[in-house]
Amino acid sequence: MIIKTLELTDYRNYESLKIDFGPGVNILYGDNAQGKTNILEAIFLAATTKSHRGTNDKDIIRFGAEEGHLRILLYKNDVDTRLDIHIRKSKTKVIAIDQKKIKKATELLGLLNVVFFSPEDLNIIKNGPAERRRFTDMELCQLDDFYLYNLNNYNKIVNQRNTLLKDIYFNPSLKETIEIWDSQLVSYGSKVIERRKAFVDQLNEVIGPVHEKLSGHKESLRIIYEPNIEIEDYEQALSSSTERDIKTKMTNVGPHRDDFVFMVGDIDIRKFGSQGQQRTAALSLKLAEIEIVKRLTGDIPILLLDDVLSELDSGRQKFLLDSIGDVQTIITCTGVEDFVNSRIKIDKLFEISNGALISSQ
Ligand SMILES: Nc1ncnc2c1ncn2[C@@H]1O[C@H](COP(=O)(O)OP(=O)(O)O)[C@@H](O)[C@H]1O
Ligand SMILES: [Mg+2]
Fold first, then answer.
1. Please, which of 15, 96, 148, 327 could form a disulfide with 84 given CB 3.0 to 4.6 Å?
2. Secondary-structure breakdown of the chain: helix, strand, coil percentages, each rounded to the nearest 5
3. Domain that residue 103 falls in
4. 59 and 189 share a domain?
């Protein structure tokens, strides 16, 4: 799969942009705050329906404009596919695939697969469990409609249950109604747990060899899923937690509290790893992500590297660039110096300044 063309109209700081990407490595360079990341954001949004920044749709529309457009010409399975996303200020966005409107934004998932890598991702091991859950959810939601459905329902019910807990705190007679939520919570939550478990197994199959190479054959990396509760204990634990939940006015048991442990040998590197170890493992995770998408979709994802090369030392930089292979890659950076010493073959080079493409070669 490759993106042939991206067009933006009134999207972030672009009034109008048309960019023709090459099938290999594409570099977007320019000073800070010129609009490089905005381009990657647009591609990410086309893949996942949301901004990687978590922004509301309306904030993506160019300041002062009423609506924004994003169009992508995609080449996949030997055919061209047109994707149109029309972002509106106070209404939901309209999405069309080959001129045909889709009913729900989630129908878009699976058309375009991307792996997005930003400097913040290098902290995924060091940061709290929420980041690691976000990584897993983002990946699984792109790859598995059923997971997306279960997770959305699960999150909705957690929120509704939390609202009810607050109400019970002030009005204890409502307590009996909680059971209705609990059975649904266990039903959706168990499916989330089950899929996360399988995902970690899949990740371990690919991350081991990647990390071994990346660490110069010095380390072996393994991920352990650490569910907050096992499926078989879930129902019981949730009902035993009711009093505590009412006191704390929130749901204390369930997969919204899960974590993932990263082990190098016998060491939990979340807590005891050096910064270098943590960053290498994060890089391995991202590279494994490409492989997972390949395996699960049979298609090669597009790799988006946002300002990440300057964050890596030369050894890791080289490994990353060398492992790109046949993946269409879009890299943002402030200067092209990063590439001088690498053997990487650059397909196209674009200079971005103040919301415009000022040169391409
Ligand atoms: N809705 C918007 N309308 C116009 N400009 C915007 C909007 N959102 C962000 N920007 C501008 O986009 C620029 C940041 O773009 P970004 O892609 O993050 O830059 P960089 O080249 O550093 O990656 C900033 O100048 C910011 O003011
Ligand atoms: Mg940027």
1. 96
2. 50, 25, 25
3. 1-113+336-361
4. no
